[in-house]
Each structure stands twice: as C-alpha cells, then as structure tokens.
Amino acid sequence: MRTISRVSVINKRLRKGYTTGTCAAAASAAAAKMLFEGEEIRGIEVELPAGGRVMFETVDIEIGTDSAECCVIKDAGDDPDVTDGIKICARATRATAGVSVKGGEGIGVVTKPGLSVEVGEPAINPVPRRMITENVARQLPEGAGVEVTVFAPEGVERAQKTFNKRLGIVGGISILGTTGIVRPMSLDSLKASLIPQVDIAMALGYTTIALVPGNMGARAAEGRLKFPADSIVQMSNFVGFMLDYCVEKGVKKVVLLGHIGKMVKVAAGYFDTHSGKTEDPVELMKKLIRNETKDIAPMMYMVKVNTAEDAAQGLSKMGYSRLLDKIAETATVKALEYVDGKLEIGTSITILSGEIVGSDTAARVIVKESAW
What we know:
Distance between the termini: 53 Å
Helix content: 25-40%
Structural class: alpha/beta
Radius of gyration: 25 Å
Number of helices: 14
Number of strands: 16
Order of helices and strands: HEHEEEEEEEHEHEEHHEHEHEHHHHHEEH
C-alpha cells in the first residue's frame, strides 16, 4: 500500500503564500509604473519565476515629482513565517537607462563570504533580484530607466527572529525565494536555511566545523570547546542531511555536539532526530547502557528517571561518565557509517547547563589538533 506523509496531507489543506522576493517585485513594479504614469495603482500583477501571474494589492502609496513608492503586505499563507504580515516596500526614481536595484531601510547587508550575494551588497538573492528587474522592466516606457530601492520598515525587528545574524547579514531581513511561493510547513525551505552556514564556514577557511542542534549546542561549542563562531553550524534535527552537505562541500572534520537527548538518537542510528520520528531517548539510553555494563547500579537508576537530562546528570554524579563517553563513541561510529568514512567525525554530549558530560576520543583529538 502506498503511504502518504502527514506533512503532504497537511500541505494539501493549507494555504500557500508568497515570498519576500515576490512581494518586493510587486511593490517595485507598481512604484515604477506610478512614477511614469503619475497615477495611483491599487493593484499590480507579478510574473513568477516558474510561470504564472499573481495580483497584489498596494498600500501606503506616495507619488512625488521625482519618485513614487508603495508597499505590499506579505501573506505567507498558513506557513509560520516570521515575515508574515510585514510590509515590503519599494521606491522608484528615474535613471538614465535600464533597471537598478538597491536595498534600503530594513534590508540586511551581507558581511560574510560564502552566500549567493557578495559581501557589502544588500541581501537580495539572485532570483528575487531577477524577478524585481524583469517585472519592473515590463512597466517602463521604451528607453526609460529606473532605480528601485527595496525597503522594509519592520525589517530590523523581524530579522532578530531569523538566521540572518549567524549568516553575517546585518541590519534587516533578506529578500528571498526561488519559486516566488511559500509552501506551508516545507521541510525543504527549513533545510535550505541551514546550509548557507556551511558555505560561510568554508569560505572563511574553516574545514573543521561543529554541527549542533541549536543555540544551546552553539554556546557550548564556542564557550567550552573554543570553536570560532563562524565554524559552528546549526543543523536542527537534520543530522544526516547536514552531514551529507558537509561531504559535498569538502568539509574535512566534524564534531557532533549536542544535548544527550539528541546525541543518543544518533547513537541509535537516527539521522533525523525529530521526536516524532524516533524512540524515546531514555529507552534508547537504557538499551545502549545495558550492552556496555554489567553493573546493576546504572540500570537501577535508569528505571527511575523520566528524561535523558536526568539520566545524564545522574550517571555523571554516580561515576559512570564512561557510559556517556560510550554513547558519544557509538554516535560517531553510526555517523561514520552514514557518510562512508568521507569525514573525520567525533561526538560530544552536553546537558542543559552547557556542561560537556561525554566525549569520545575522536572529538578530543579533533579539538586538540584544530588550529583556529
């Protein structure tokens, strides 16, 4: 029987939305049209990269002698997008020829290499930039030119809830999108937001990186293992996906560093550590520990605990840190099997305080030999 994933079923029921790139193209095209026609336009049609057209309503219209501007309110559909409802705006002024695109208030600026936009340029990705240019060009009289400045009044505030700071994008949001459409709950879009961290690390010369589930692991990697911030890559639950990408990009060494609740899942052979896709971490710890010791004390203790955090803290206090080291070692073995030995890998385990309670020899060697 053919199976259908829960996400695919939900996606059929949820409403799609539009990217910041599509909204920027709409606002830019409308502003350019109003600049040359001198009249307010309450709606504008935009052509999407993959074909098809979408109509957008314009708001906050201002038409002057030498410029025109307006905004489009982003509708992300039913996707939990942090930029949903934000105003994406554009100001158009006359130029000698062609279409030039700039970033204004609330649009981030790229400060690190490795992204698809050069350092010093506004964070307007290539596909959205092309969308803006092509849609604006359709509105121009023959031989006319225009300079478009894209801006977002709430961009600085909204950017604090994105990955932009880690990616070296400062001062606002990014103008993104490859299809022009936001698909609700898209795992692909989440994965796509993670991989630029590897690109940046490699562009800065780091071939040894720390792969961490989130902010807690990142703090431990920087504060306790002294990884440079730009060599620390957040992977969320996508351990396998990010390991594959590291291999593809030529990363040499990886330290997997994360909470016991995540790392024990890797040790059990799970490379997507989402709670809905794995066994309970306490049960996984019990299985691994049972195979590593004949002592009764740790197993008697494990029967009483409710969380992996409690288990790791208790085992450490009882003098059984070697069992946590073994879990780290097992995670490394599984990860090496996953990548067919194409990376050097070590594993370290933390608890909620950020303390590292378990490490294998490989992780210690990688950290010791890394010349930051």
